[in-house]
Amino acid sequence: MTTQATSLERTDPDRQAAYRATDRMLRSRLLQRLGGIRGRILVEDAFGLAELGSADTGGLPPIEVHVTVHRPDFYRQVALNGSVGAGESYMEGDWDCDDLVGLVQLLVRNRDLLDRMEGGVAALGGWLMRSWHAWRRNTRTGSRRNIAAHYDLGNDLFSLFLDRNLMYSSAVFAHPAESLEVAATRKLDRICQKLALRPTDHVVEIGTGWGGFALHAARHYGCRVTTTTISREQHALASQRVAAAGLSERINVLLEDYRDLDGRYDKLVSIEMVEAIGHQYLDTYLAKCASLLEDDGLALIQAITIEDHRYRQALASVDFIKRHIFPGSFIPSISALTGAMARSTDLRLLSMEDIGPSYALTLRAWRERFVQRLDEVRALGYDERFVRMWEFYLCYCEGGFLERSIGDAQLLLARPGNRRGEYLPDLHPVEPGWA
């Protein structure tokens, strides 16, 4: 049963004066909507404590969160821009939550309610954001601009919270208590083993990152790697790391758009890069992957994925990630990937593994490391708004992976001439239990 109560002992007349009549109306409307949520949200503001939701969790573990609203701007932002407005309001310090990941989980579990919050006046804000997003199309020039907006924030920032390999993608955990270092290395080994990498192989990698995969593959499997990125910051550091490791003869780091690559390779790797290409270029991307492979070549593509039935809706909307973290991005569904593969390539799918649960643990580890080193983040020149934006971003993603509304798939693909698939090592899926 839905409940809503207000504690008069917690009211604050001085802060209430900041609320205009429209603010009070927007507050009342939002609390009314949240009152129907499955789960528990306590909303505390100048008017007291509202206890919202119900004990009905649909059989899922119960979640209760406490939201503290500091300023009425929160209610205005949600009304104008829905969930993106809530994130922007958090960046400004208008509200806090004792369990931000739990709040995201509750909203994912009540997505029908969340979808309704994007309507009304918020629909106008959504239209404006979609118009902005349309200008972020991933042409060659646009891609460089979009990638620079995130990956060129500064290598020193990313080094504060990533593992020693500087892998900015999901690790593979065997259990929740495992270290990020161990889980990140396991991910790299599983990719190399799925591809059956050998010293005679020449591998092409689309999306260098900071060189983590290329260094691991060349150092431990003896292969040659040609890897490309369009981030100048990543290219500079990856090149330095390769030289420092004494692997310059085995690893060639390029600063080129994937569309400009040529040649033929034995194996191809692309780890969570497809999300940056833009949905309009999915066929182009997969066709290029196939064209770079020898007739018997293998490819491993690791991709964040969305549920098939929500893919079209997601393409037509702009969420917090598209707006503030990865401009020009999209999340493909499995059917979108395989459909584009069928239309544009002769690749066949050998295996697929969802490592989404491990991504929740990876994000938790990144968030904990980020928070532990906030003094160093600030010392690099990042302000409080940036810190809160990144906190919201990491929690937003972690909650999505915990609720399995997004996944992370490793797709092993083969060209028609490949006959080695049945001889690949039998790697059993790793799905960590939850503490």
UniProtKB/TrEMBL annotation:
The keyword S-adenosyl-L-methionine applies. The active site is at 397. Keywords: Lipid metabolism, Methyltransferase, S-adenosyl-L-methionine, Transferase. GO terms for molecular function: methyltransferase activity. InterPro entries: CFA/CMAS, CMAS, SAM-dependent_MTases_sf. Gene3D superfamilies: Vaccinia Virus protein VP39. GO terms for biological process: lipid biosynthetic process; methylation. It comes from the Bacteria. Belongs to the CFA/CMAS family. This is Class I SAM-dependent methyltransferase.
